[in-house]
Design goal:
Four copies of one chain form a homotetramer. By secondary structure, the first copy, chain A, is an alpha+beta fold. Chain A has one domain: 4-Layer Sandwich (Chorismate synthase, AroC fold). Chain A is built from nine helices and 18 strands. In chain A, the strands form six sheets. In chain A, strands 1-2-3-7-4 form a five-stranded antiparallel sheet, with helices on one face. The first copy, chain A, is globular. The termini of chain A are far apart. Chains in contact: A-B, A-C, A-D, B-C, B-D, C-D.
């Protein structure tokens, strides 16, 4: 379906060659000061043609707000917005129409809908993400104003080039039951401090200087080889309130995984210690509690990734997302036509050798949508409970723990 | 929320110390022959106490069907089912009530709900999964009868002990742009043939004989060390029809990720080539098409994991899920009380040193629920389109590809 | 579907001859003190066999709470509850199985589900309402504690016997453009003061003494004639906060109508001035504002029924619901068998000549569910907006109206 | 919320003074031939300024399709459409801003959202219905092509001027237990034959010639008196398949009531025998079955209004909807300002003395949306059940009734 969220609901529309792409955001809190520029800044980061690492297409992608605001203030009613498509003409017939493109959605869209659209993969085009990014920018704007939430995504790997994650001196072989800590102290520092300015300082959107340079070269090599290369994006959400996430099916990480895997070309998601967390014994993996300076409870480590039992605990939420190598490449591929006839397919159209730098604002947008929706659900519960008379007859086991001071 | 699905909807209830746990399954197709035993078999595989690798608690966990069936046939009305809790008494007050258990949900449940339950983490208990497994067994039963769908999950790693996935002879270093194929031919063979009997032949539920033995020893070492260890579960879904998955937010893999990350203790999810897919160039990663014996299109490789553009393509869907090391361990932990006072917490209660073998039927259940719901949505679209008159005036680009023969 | 609500969600299960009927209530605010008795009291009012005006069947209908509470306090987790069916055996084959009962759901259930259940109309049985009444009692309990909300329903007509609604002296003919006020001052007084004690003082649950007696006789006459008779139930909700109802599709009255028409045997719904409101000129129908003693705005009349633009305005919400005459009657009916063969069908089973007295708690339950869910949605919005910084640059038209004092 | 439907989902946006109003229709079956004109025809019927009985404003209201179609064929992806607002400027400050207009939504919108919009009642404006009518036209287009469904609404009363419904010779007093049939034979003939051409033959959209003339005069009198008058709209849906409607909360009539009461200014809904059905004994009210010429079962009478147990039975669905007299009138009203100060408010802006003729296409649109969504849900169930193996061991009571011939 094209709708995401329960209280803060986003419905997107549009494909590559129609009149416009966009979204309706329903359920935005009223009284939020919002300018088109708050949205445009993230659309610009998503836009192709920002560097010679990405496709040369120069889309303007200006957002047009249709409703839901007056004098720059949200009314609480649906905010509709759209971005015009520059190239609205369905493409002309060509020989390549005989072929479903390998690892594209041409074949599956045809199997699903039974209609052959000009754009082949229809809504699986990256163009569709315009509506998400715009909607996410609104959610993020709220989260920042209301809770000081910070969401920063960055490129953590391109091909086999990774920002170093674990301590290189750690011993890690299968014969040894010990395992190194999932993340080095240096990497944890990066997570807790990285800013969008740090990220945008590099064309690759990797804030780790040496790695950024190696990634850039890897992308250039892919382009030179008429090939493509994938990568991963890591994202951190800071200052989230505790209590977000709805057990049992809408745990914070479950909804987050849903949101992230809905982004085109994604293949994997891990949060906190992720796949490495399965290799570390419980005695090391457990996040012990300690008193924070402000008197509240915090955890010393954060292998939980800010979530326990599906509910945020006030620590940073961080996660990593895998993007496959783009399916469109500038070399011939031996494959089959729709009718099974074998043949060679030459690429058509514009394409990026590596999409992960442009994926950064999309990941941030989806993270914001998840946090915003789960925040609004939790606010409802808290407000409802706050109106109840106190209970005076509880047994000792249910007595609330002593107030922190 | 405690409801999963749009047309085939499961709502679960229950925590550790209440009268019963269970579920209502709403939207099950009528006319399905269903016996309690079809459900019980998976509940028994989920049940603790099946071996000395797991907790000695011997729950009986008999399912009691309440409604929605007559003479063993589904009526199409809600199927309610419940499993009684043996231990219904809230526990007595103890010194450990002062402490939120590290990496458990005690602290976050309290932050979220503001009520201190006897069971601490409330619905984050593994006991909650009873309802899912029962509901999933019904979905799976339908999928098998209607489409011959096979769902098999198995333990693919415990700690650092993994079933070998890639060809050990492959060169894989960061200085080399080439990358080995994400999965070896042998492993792909395993995925396409593994059965539940193969899986249950080992206490560890790992169908790879040598690895199974090493895993068993790893679990025994964890137990001996009063510690715990995590692992991964891999699952394959075979014979799924094409066309399942709802662009753009409810792509097959997105809903699958949602379902999987809603299982307690999970930290990561990848499908198809997963995180490895980001390291392989597009020219290698693309799944080229070829004609199958029956005339339809298939792909030679399947790095896509059976899904393209969020829609199933008829190839096997396979994915891997990471489970952290259990938080409950039999050793003292230095942590803090609710009020911030530092102290040492001794474990209480029964616990598994490793939960992944028992997670196998839970993963299968959630996979079945995802496939079932998305199947029913797609059935609606197909049936609706089938009633429309044919269109005779399409331009060449929209003309349907020649029929396969 | 068997689920109602978005944040306070009720899912019911069960039909006449299965093991139990019941519900899961998901999303109940935590920290609510709740006893089984708070629920039982409404189940008892719904129960048949309370008088010789209704069916002699004496069901015990004890509610069994399964989960979601500890020491009588809600945990915020799903509350499952069930009521056992006394008569769990599917009935034996009988000649009447050849006939779909006229104006029952036997025929449509068969058309819909393609499975012939013992109970014929399956979930259309009044037995299904047990789950609603129990869930509604929980919602009502919250609403009363948190906002002092009062919900009172009563029988306003049986057959052609109505509580007098308009002033009998008013002229009301089609040639005269004037129309009497939709409700007399006396009736409005009844609405604003009627209590459950007033209602239960009469077997017919009509709080208007003379009318109650006439209704009773009408029901007795129906029974004597081996026939049945319908009626209407009127309900008032007092002390609802302003701001409830979600434009545009989930206006308060729209969700209320949905809830009410989901009750078996209902045929019509009107709120406020209802159908009479269409006959009164706007100059009379408009509810003019005036200052209330507490400084807030109120309306002098309340033809709007407490709702304007789909949102509650703080005045009493009141509405009326029509129930058809019960389809089961103790006389032979000339009709056709499933295969079209004409024949005469004799009634089987127990039945009420008039169901409206027992419908009273069902109407109250559904009203509570609607108010509760829309309240929780609005709480979320208010809490979210409350966190935003004030806006200082509004144009005069958007400046908030002066505070009431 | 601004979304309606579960599989065929409509999300609308827009208020009076923003850039545009419109909708996204998600879940439309692919392969449907659809032209803008199919939508425009109903928008034109909704448009004000069609006669001197309605407001003189002449909006052009051209629909602009944004996505989801190629070469006039639906792709199965979201169809976005918009209609530009001619008057996009928020109005200037005026003295009337001090007053909440009586029986408008100015006060409740302010209570709900806490933001004072230029248009006062925000989305409660009739302008919002543009998106519904457009979406409904698409649904209706499908229903007609796939099932030959016909939806015709008409004005059945204005003020106290009604199309005669019951037989005038029938005796109907409270002292007589008999009641006339809810609808005369003549009226039932009208329901089964009335066409849109019949309806549009009269400015009042009343297809009953003598009544149409009297209604017209009633509206002229209201205008002359600077007043307004309400009315009712009756709608019939013909050729609906059996089996639509989802027990228990989404019965066909419950969803229909929800949809209808979400239309601005509505106060009541009844279907089939409606409120009259409560006065007729069961022996008369029951719809006896008989064999239709084609061998299927039909009912001789249709007091059920085409629905039994919440599920369509193949007979005509018909219902009636009440619209209050418009709140905007051209005369001064004694009321209070936001701060409680009493005063006299003069009307501003354009307004209709009677809105029911224009409501006709809105009622048809919402009826189409309900039927379409419930049809798609039922299609899913049927398709799912059709794949199951037959059951050979049923007891006699569950054996399917003999096939009709």
């Amino acid at each position: 379906m094209s709708t995401f969220g329960k209280l803060f609901r986003v419905t997107t529309f549009g494909e590559s060659h129609c009149a416009s792409v966009g979204a309706i955001i329903d359920g935005c809190p009223p009284g939020l000061q919002l300018a088109a520029e708050d949205i445009q800044v993230q659309l610009d980061r998503r836009r192709p043609g920002q560097s010679d690492l990405t496709t040369p297409r120069n889309e303007k992608d200006r957002v047009h707000l249709q409703s839901g605001l007056e004098h720059g203030v949200t009314l609480g009613t649906p905010i509709a917005l759209l971005v015009r498509n520059e190239d609205q003409r369905p493409h002309d017939y060509s020989e390549t129409d005989l072929y479903p493109r390998p690892s594209h959605a041409d074949y599956t869209y045809l199997e699903k809908y039974g209609v052959k659209a000009s754009s082949g993969g229809g809504r699986s085009s990256a163009r569709e993400t315009v509506g998400r990014v715009a909607a996410g920018a609104i959610a993020e704007h709220y989260l920042k104003l209301a809770h000081g939430v910070e969401i920063v995504a960055f490129v953590s790997s391109v091909g086999k080039i990774h920002i170093p994650v674990t301590d290189p001196s750690a011993v890690d072989d299968a014969d040894n039951d010990d395992a190194p800590e999932p993340l080095s102290a240096e990497y944890r520092r990066l997570l807790s401090t990285v800013s969008r300015a740090d990220v945008d300082a590099h064309l690759t959107r990797c804030p780790h200087v040496e790695t950024a340079e190696r990634m850039k070269n890897r992308i250039i090599r892919a382009k030179a080889a008429s090939d493509s290369i994938g990568g991963t994006v890591t994202c951190v959400i800071r200052n989230l309130p505790t209590g977000l996430g709805e057990p049992v099916f809408d745990k914070f990480e479950a909804v987050l995984a849903h949101a992230m895997l809905s982004i085109p070309a994604t293949k994997g998601f891990e949060f906190g210690s992720g796949f490495r967390g399965a290799e570390v014994p419980g005695s090391v993996h457990n996040d012990k509690f300690s008193k924070r300076p402000d008197g509240s409870l915090g955890t010393e480590t954060n292998w939980s990734g800010g979530v326990q039992g599906g509910i945020t605990n006030g620590e940073d939420v961080y996660f990593r997302l895998s993007f496959k190598s783009p399916a469109t490449i500038s070399q011939a591929q031996e494959t089959a036509q729709y009718d099974g006839t074998p043949g060679s397919l030459e690429a058509r159209g514009r394409h990026d050798p590596c999409v992960v730098p442009r994926a950064v604002p999309i990941v941030e947008a989806m993270a914001a949508l998840v946090a915003m929706d789960l925040l609004m659900i939790q606010k409802s519960r808290q407000a409802a409970t706050a109106l109840l008379p106190p209970i005076t007859t509880l047994p000792p086991t249910m007595v609330m723990p002593p107030k922190r001071s």
